[in-house]
Design a protein that fits this description.
Blueprint: E1 4-7, E2 10-13, E3 17-20, H1 21-24, E4 32-34, E5 51-54, E6 59-60, E7 63-64, E8 70-72, H2 74-79, E9 84-85, E10 90-93, E11 101-103, E12 113-115, E13 119-122, H3 131-139, H4 141-147, E14 151-152, E15 158-159, H5 162-167, E16 170-173, H6 176-216, E17 235-238, E18 241-244, E19 248-251, H7 252-255, E20 257-260, E21 269-270, E22 276-279, E23 294-296, E24 302-303, E25 308-311, E26 319-321, E27 326-328, E28 332-336, H8 340-348, H9 351-355, H10 369-373, E29 376-379, H11 382-422
Parallel strand pairs: 5-12, 22-27
Antiparallel strand pairs: 1-2, 3-16, 4-13, 5-8, 6-7, 9-12, 10-11, 10-13, 14-15, 17-18, 19-29, 20-28, 21-23, 22-23, 24-27, 25-26, 25-28
Helix pairs in contact: 3-4, 6-8, 6-11
Length: 429
Amino acid sequence: MSDWKDTEIGLIPRDWKIEKIDNIKSEQKAAIAMGPFGSNITKDNFVDHGIPVIRGNNLTDFIFRDDEFVFLTEEKSKKLSSSSCKKGDIVITHRGTLGQVGYIPNKSKYDKYIISQSGMKISVNESVVNSKFLFLFLKSRLGQHLLLRNTSQTGVPAISQPTTSLKLIPVPLPPLKEQTAIVKVIWTIQEKIENLMRQNETLEAIAQTLFKHWFIDFEFPNADGKPYKSSGGAMITSELGDIPRGWKVGTLSNEFEIIMGQSPAGSSFNEDKQGIVFFQGRTDFGFRFPSVRLYTTEPSRIAEKFDILVSVRAPVGDINVASEKCCIGRGLAAIKSKDKSYCLHKLKSYKKLFNLFESEGTVFGSINKQSFNDLASIIPNNEVIKNFEILVQTMDKKFYVNNLQIQTLTKTRDTLLPKLMSGQLRVDM
């Protein structure tokens, strides 16, 4: 134990220090600051282009989502200068969805951002702390605990006196060289994860483009390998417009089996891998495959591996694929088809139609089984569907393998992080 010392956050290596965040912030003005108050920023201030506003949707897991912004004019942003942030800064949500932490990377699209009313930011003194190291600490279990220890659950969840609470958080600080080495270990894993995610995004976009070209634009290859419709392929009139000869109009229930979810007894839920995986709704969804959080020992409605999962409560129509046999709750439907890829991309093409159901229901949007079954569908002939399945099969296999690698790397990252942050595992420098 001679190599360790006891501190307010537990045992740490003897050559490490403990510093409050207030003591490691940048010397610049407003190094720690909250987003604008109340009426200082409203929907009326948003424009199509300008200075982006960072909201919770931009802070996803370990990734800074550099898109889907609302914007302010340059003039308005100057009036909110204390709430501005830049590359290398850390952004945290203090209200609403708590505990979100983001790091603005050097490769980000913009040189300047404004944090939203629910956010706060930190600019650090890089001669004392590596900004990525502090970000990783705040993402760790201990960092999250310290960040959220003054949370109030009255009304909208919020951190009480957010900037004061943030300034008082104690941070274990290895020597700067060791901080950099720790960051390199985690960042290398994270970059591999993000590279695989980008590959999957590209594969998804290609497959969806092919689906549209074949089944919406009717440009599937004809017998000569040329685009059907633009090469003079025969079309017939239907209630949904002109469609290729040999195709027909029906409903989704004519093509697929639709099973609505039903939640098991509450006492059957657990996080200890007892029973079968349980997905309640779209909160479990990932980019294509959901994340496993809960299990149930009393499953009711079952989805098999590679069944398509569709959210049937607001937001209606979000889509994932079951990566294993699972139980589905009331927020989901499982769509069964032997033509998995065709089914997946067809349902994705229904997103605008699913959005129409957002106004249904007494509390939130929803779609029931009858309405789901009765959605109109242009049904291709089997040969075109078969050829599409063959074409995208390799892409789907690559997507699935990439996803397994992402899961393995994520588990490795999340196992290493607390050990590195506590000094239980030291890095060679």
